[in-house]
Amino acid sequence: MKRVLLPTDFSESAWNAIHYGLKLLKDEECHFCLLNTFDVLYASNLVSANQVSPAFDTAMSVSQASLKETLHKLELLENPNHSFEIISRNNFFLDAVKDVVEEKNIELIIMGTKGSRNNKGVGFGSNAVLVIEKVTKCPVLVIPKKSKFYGFKEVILPSSYEEAYTDDSLKPIKDIITRYQSNIRILHIREKDELSEEQKANKFALEDQLEGLHYTFHALSNIDPAMGIKCFTESMQGDLVALISKEHSFWSRFKESLTIKSVNYHPKAPLLVIHQAS
């Protein structure tokens, strides 16, 4: 049974991500953990904030009530493949997510973007960026606010060819492609005119790993990675962008660019981030 974390702040964006995730996984046996966090400060000399803080009691009551309301709506869908639990945590969002991933052996996180508006448009919210960057033990699927699930006809896989992919890293992507008979479009954003020998070897290895699947190679030049991915995905009517990330890889700059206000990365397709160990 797949164990999936669904963080929620009860916003429209969070609900859309939850609904997207349940449709995506409707035929799989899954246990969903709905997580809501709040941050109640309390005096350091209190023995137990959970027992003596009225602010904590109020915040916990609101969180639990809202989670139960969300759970009720999900149970009305009556999918026998799905079970749920609700979790309220008095903690910073990222710390709570990391804790639950460890405690519940989470295999996938599905969350909304809740885009933060800037002077160029709407991009990823700070919580989504934090999870993409800092939670490396399981894949993260980030769902734009207006995305609806209709399957995956076109999957975009950006690659620098600087690192060889492990079979474990590619498996979630290959599973999607096989299930939905997707086309996979491998996008390389060139920094130099020619690939190095190592990049050529890694590209050939990727071809071997994708044997039997429908794939094509593409390249762009002289463009910011995030903007290049956005433009290419829109031109190909991409249904999903899958990003395999290593901490010090070229594509880590994609994540960095999500936080730069001058980069108008307004995603229309969901983003699947898979962390590959160094």
UniProtKB/TrEMBL annotation:
Record-linked InterPro entries: Universal_stress_UspA, UspA
Family: Belongs to the universal stress protein A family.
Protein's name according to its UniProt entry: UspA domain-containing protein
Domain UspA span(s) in chain numbering: 1-144
SUPFAM superfamilies with a match to the protein in the record: Adenine nucleotide alpha hydrolases-like
One Pfam assignment: Usp
